[in-house]
């Protein structure tokens, strides 16, 4: 996951040519990076530890099916979503002053859907925790990406970062309460 997120930063940074560097491009780059930071937070805040604990808690054949579910069934759509995000973010940054074209918009919407659903699956499989806030935030972000057709690509990235980040903040009290209940 760390490698995939790092590759996004490299791909997006290379999107604009030297003559295209302006305020809009810089803001779009910052928005793309902010989305990567939010994705990192969503994965490494508690989910990665929950996956590790879930695998450590089981043995025998159950351990194999748990590992398969978490590291294959959960991570394939997650990494596919991250790759699609890189495509959409690269389009948004490359054409920062303009509205996001349908291909970039579709890539971003699919990326959000895959990533949010993968996170929800991983949380459910690892910690038996339903990430309602993330699911709602993902739906709102997808709706924003698809409906704000006249908004430039950089602004779309900031909106996505805000919505997903807000959903993670709203989720925190339930995550902490569940962790506190498990520690008893």
Key structural traits:
single chain; mainly alpha; 0% strand; elongated
How would you describe the overall organization of this protein?
Helix 3 runs antiparallel to helix 4, helix 3 packs across helix 5 and helix 4 packs antiparallel against helix 7. The two termini are 31 Å apart. The protein is mostly helical and 184 residues long. The protein is elongated and about 55 Å long. It has one domain.
* Rounded mean pLDDT score: 89
Number of structural domains: 1
Helix share, percent: over 70%
H/E series, N to C?
A: HHHHHHH
The poorly predicted ranges are: none
The main sheet comes to:
none
Which shape, going by the Cα principal axes? elongated
**DSSP summary, beta strand count:** 0
What proportion of the residues form beta strands (DSSP E)? under 5%
Please report the distance between the alpha carbons of the first and last residues.
31 Å
- Secondary-structure-based class equals mainly alpha
Provide a count of the helices.
7
- Rg, rounded, reads 17 Å
């Amino acid at each position: 996951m760390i490698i995939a997120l790092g590759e996004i930063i490299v791909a997006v940074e290379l999107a604009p040519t030297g003559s295209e560097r302006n305020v809009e491009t810089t803001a779009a780059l910052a928005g793309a990076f902010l989305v990567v930071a939010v994705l990192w937070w969503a994965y490494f805040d508690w989910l990665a530890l929950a996956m590790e604990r879930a695998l450590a808690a089981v043995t025998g054949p159950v351990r194999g099916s748990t590992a398969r579910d978490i590291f294959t069934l959960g991570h394939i759509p997650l990494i596919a979503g991250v790759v699609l995000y890189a495509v959409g973010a690269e389009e948004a940054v490359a054409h920062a002053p303009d509205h996001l074209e349908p291909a970039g918009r579709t890539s971003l919407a699919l990326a959000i859907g895959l990533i949010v659903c993968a996170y929800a699956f991983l949380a459910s499989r690892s910690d038996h925790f339903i990430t309602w806030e993330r699911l709602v935030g993902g739906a709102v972000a997808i709706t924003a990406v698809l409906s704000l057709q006249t908004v430039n690509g950089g602004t779309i990235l900031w909106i996505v970062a805000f919505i997903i980040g807000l959903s993670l903040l709203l989720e925190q009290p339930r995550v902490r309460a569940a962790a506190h209940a498990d520690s008893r």
